[in-house]
Amino acid sequence: MSIYSKTTCPILCMVLLCAGLNVASAAEVEPAAPAELPSLEQLKQTGLTRSRFHATANGPKALPSDGKPPGADLKTFQDKIKPLLTQYCYDCHSAEVMEGNFQVSSLDPNILKGKDTEWWAEVFSVVTKGEMPPPDDMDMDEADRRVVVHWLSRELEAASIVRRQSGSHSAFRRLTRYEYNYALQDLLGLPWDFAKDLPPEPHSEEGFENSSVLLHVSVSQFETYHRLAREALDKATVSGPRPEPIYWGISMKQAAEREFKQQDQQVAKAKKEHKDNPEKLAEELAKLEKNAKQTFRTPYYQQLSTGRTAEAEWAYYGARYAFAPIKTKAEFPEDYDHVAILPGGQRRNIVVELGNQIPDEGTMRVTVRASRAGKDDKNFPSLQLLFGWQASNEGRALQRVSEADVPITATPDTPQIVQWEFPLSEIYPRNSVRKTSPMGHTPSPSEYIRIANSAASASDIQIDYVCVEAPVYEQWPPKSHQQIFFESENSGDETAYAREIITRFMTRAWRRPPSPAEVDRKLKLFAVMRPQCERFEDAVLEVLATVLSSPQFLYVAQASQHEAAPIDEATAQQNASLATRLALFLWCSLPDDELIEVASTGKLTDPDILTAQVDRMLADPRSKRFSEHFVNQWLNLELLGFVNFKGLDPLLKEAMQHEPVALFEEVMANDASILDFLHADYAVVNERLARHYGLKNVYGNEFRRVDLEASVPRGGLLTQSGVLAMNSDFPDSHPLKRAIWLLECILADPPPPPPPAVPQIDLANPEIAKMTLRERMEDHRSQAACKSCHVKIDPWGLAFENFDALGKWRDNIRGKPVDASSELFNGETLEGMEGLKRFLLDNRQDQFVEATVRKMATFGLGRPLGFEDRAEIDTITAQVRQQGDGLRTVVQTIVHSDLFLSE
Known about the structure:
By secondary structure, the protein is an alpha+beta fold. It is built from 31 helices and 22 strands. The strands form 7 sheets. Strands 2, 3, 4, 5, 7, 11 and 13 form a 7-stranded antiparallel β-sheet that branches. Mean pLDDT is 85; it is low at 1-33, 56-65 and 559-565.
């Protein structure tokens, strides 16, 4: 429960996240000379030593060996706490003077069983952060503050344990859209989008999509899931003979000849027109020859032996650029003299039109031979592949079909082979007239691929040959088919074979071995469906579709026990449920065979085995799903998808979106401190982002760690351009948005919503319109209705003012020097981003680490956390802090906690 649900009066002053000193830093200190200030990296260590979680003596309350929480410590309250509250709080929060309509003197001191536990939690929060008592009124002695915080910490933890032991909670929920998709991908062995027809998920108050309070299924939705399941199974299985592939082999000599032909026609025309004027003819031929050897900023063809060039042209009408398929598989020629040059810097691409014979289904394979255009080029450009069509002036589509850009590192004398494969059935929309309109007519039925140079810098790529093949099947039936209809000695007995297939499939899909009764029910359905189906496989697929549309697949719930299991039911249920939670947490998907096998033995809860499984899962490529979805939901990066500011090119936006995930993966890989999210002496960037930040000698589209000089104002999440851009209001920055994002996502202490009828900034007023953004905020804050909130929010956002709407550093705004300083609630001044980072690392380490633990635990459990979980979160936070704040340590500690194990 939040304090804001009880009142909208001035008590907001007490609970709004504001600046202040924490327990360890409330005492006034003599300001140090700038030269004596510790570095930000040093502050990580000094701040840790003052943590209330750092030493066991100051950590969470130890419980008796019988696990029962102690009674309320009322004696300490009467002897020590009440006198301190009387001294520091009662003047403003007593029966006589109730500022904020809040009376501390009336709170029940029995935190374990009294009615005011949530209020005491709010008191703990504001006292710990130094927000109360207000520094302007009275500064609490450091030793007194420690006494109050220590007593409150112990009593609140005990109260949390009492609530957890006496209450119940549930993470019963359905799979999210992305979990459903990954589950089908892993189950069927196909990397396709099976959930594109499902609606997007709502977000919980904490910002997560996998919250149990939001994820339920209606009857009509079960019908949708059944349809999607059957469609997925149809894509994974095949019938009939292997389709014959279609081939294309396109040399750049073929492509160039179309352009060279026009040049030859110009030469012939000049010879005809000036045959009687040798001087004029020589002049015209010299001009044409010069034009035929120029380079272009757009893609062009070049004959290497002569230097002859021609700009690459393409138009949809007439299908005159389409290449016809060939009868046999194309092979790369040993020698070549013609290439296509793709200049870098602006995603220059060459169109390879393939006509109207591209199949509907199966995999399409595109292979090119490529190299850098220059031997001495230090840059490594990249290639990406797109698929598209243009039927008319209005009807067109273009879709990127390559996942990651491929770096081109080869030199012209030793070119490299680049190959892409993608499913044709996943391309949407296809050209709707490709089977009805003849080639050469309009609307055009043709389709094409585009090969693009995605380099951020002007680093050219040359291509000499393109091979295309579709549909491609490495084996027939494909592996996805054989995973379902595997070889078996029972294949001659349909019922026995069906039982074997269904049992194996149910085990993976339901994350546990099914009971004989459950299998029998599916066999009865098979017996009903078999006479209605021409093929055995179709009847089985109908049954498997019901497996995938059943609550056992769609919902995350406690697992039931196989009747013949060799371990007791409670152990089996605990292990099966743990395997499911673990897979959803770290892979956003199903447990794999190894995890199911370990769980079936009852050993997954063994600490050493559990640690090994977590390490294995984090090392698996599927853990990238965890990085992507947790980071995007934690930081609310969905907002960045809607940003389309002037100057934000697609390559930069794509880099902005990936940078927070790349940093998360770097910290995870090294088990580095999560304080690196507040500040790091390195960044994880690619070439386009490095150029945006002014970092030199970074080439290529792949992300890599780059050490930063002390003078570079980057490092951590707070200075990442994507975070700053999504919290801007182009063409200006937006301190309020940035402050709220910091409070909500980083410190997990959001401000309350604004009260009703808040006056808006009147930009129609010429006096206000000519003000700077900072001056407008100060004017707005001067109004009584706005001051109480903004005085505790604005300072955080003003610290970001050296970064413009796109997150670039600036020293001036419209000719005036940037003023990024701000005064916090306690009177302390933040000097821009450096000051903000210093304050957080010096005073708010505990708050940030606990917030991160809480956010990740919320994501891992798939449910909102309540007061009853407070003690467990404190325990996890203490363990993480005592072990160095490593990100991998956070994951392991959450997984090994009672909170996760006993869910």
